[in-house]
Amino acid sequence: MKAKLLLEALSFALLVVAVVFLPHHVSDFHSRELATVGMYFIALVGLGILTGYSGQISLGHGAFMAIGGYTTAILEVNHGVRDIWTIPIAGLVAGAAGLLVGIPALRLSGPYLALVTLGIAIAFPQLPKKYGHFTGGTTGEILNLPKAPFGLHTTPNHWLYYLTWAIALMLLVCAWVLLRTKPGRTWQAVRDSETAAAASGIGVPAYKTLAFGISAFYAGIAGSLFAIATSFVNPDTYPIVLSIFLVVGLAVGGASSLAGLLAGAAFVYYLDNHADAVARWADHLPFVSVNPQQSGIPSVAFGAVLILVVLLLPTGVGGLLHRLLRPLTSRLYSRS
After folding, report:
1. Can you say whether residue 201 is alpha, beta or left, with left for phi > 0 and alpha for psi between -120 and 50 degrees?
2. Which residue ranges make up each domain of the chain?
3. 139-176: per-residue pLDDT in tens?
C-alpha cells in the first residue's frame, strides 16, 4: 500500500510540474483555454464524487455552476468584494443549494433522479430573469477583468490559468483524501447496495445528501471561476447544454477515476470549441464530403467523435489507465 501511495504521489507531483511550466510554452490565448479546461475539471471531480462514488446521477450540475457564477457576480458588482474572495463563498452557496436538492432527491434514484436534476437545469435560467433587480435580468452583470494580487506582473489570462489550476489541484487533493477515508468507502458501499449499506448501520440518507452538497460545492467553485473568466454573467452564460457536457466529460473520463476526469475535461472543451477542425479533417477522408462552415456540421462532428470514443472506451479513459497499469499496481499490492 505504501508503494501505491508513493506512485500516486509521484503522479500528482508530475501533474504539478506540468501545471507550473506549461504556460511558459504556450501562448496567452492557449493559457486561457487551459484555464477553462481546469474549470471543467473541477466540476467533473465534484460530479465524479456524486455519480462515480455515491451512484447518484445528475443532469443539472450546470445550474450549480450558475449559482456559483451569480454569487461571484453579485458580490463583486453590488458589494465590491474582490473577485478572488468570492470564490469560496460561491462554492458554499452552491453547496448549500446542493444539500437542499439532495434532501428531496433521496426519494428518487436512477432515471427519475436524472430527470429531476435536468428539470432544475432547465428551470434555473428563468430565475435570473424573474429577479432582474438582483441578478441583472437578461442583460446580466458585468464583472471587472481578473487582476493578479500582491503586485504580480502577468497577463489576465496567465493569472486566470494559475488561479484556476491552483484551486483545481487543492480540490483534487481534498477529493483524493475524502474518497480514501470513511466517507469515500461509505459512498461506494451505498453505490453498490443501499440495502446492504443500511443493514450494516450506515446512515444512507445523510451520506447521499452529503455527496450532493460536496458535488455542488465543486460545481459552484467552477462556476465562479467561469464568471471571472468571461467577465460577465447572464442566463445564457450557463446554458442547459453545459450540464450535458459535464455528463459527457464524466463518461469519457470514467466516473470513478480522478485521473481520467482530466482527460474528460479536455475532451469536452476542445471538441466543443474545435469541432470544426475535426470536420475539416474528416473532409479529407475518402468517400466523405463535408463543408466545415455549414451550419450544424461541427455539432455532427462532436457527436460522431463522442460515439466513437464511447464505443472504443466503454469504461472511459480511467478504465483504460487501470487496464494499462494493472500489472504495475498488482506488483505494488503484492509488495505492500
Report:
1. left
2. 26-241
3. 888 887 666 665 567 788 888 999 999 999 999 999 99
Q: In degrees, to the nearest 5, what angle opens at C-alpha 223 toward C-alphas 158 and 52?
A: 110
Q: Give the cell for residue 62.
A: 450546470
Asked if residue 218 lies in contact with residue 42, where contact means CB atoms within 8 angstroms, the answer is: yes
Query: Dihedrals φ, ψ of 304, to 5°?
Result: -65, -45
Q: Which of 190, 184, 178, 208 is nearest to 58 (CA)?
A: 208
Provide φ and ψ at 232, rounded to 5°: -165, 160
Is residue 113 within 8 Å of 58, Cβ to Cβ? yes
pLDDT tens by residue, 74-94: 999 888 898 899 999 999 999
Q: Cell numbers of 33, please? A: 483555454
Nearest to 63 by CA among 269, 221, 249, 243: 243
H-helix segments, 131-203: 132-135, 156-179, 182-192, 194-199
Say what the pTM is.
0.92
Among the listed residues 250, 260, 271, the one whose alpha carbon sits nearest the alpha carbon of residue 59: 250
Count of C-beta atoms within a 10 Å radius of residue 172: 20
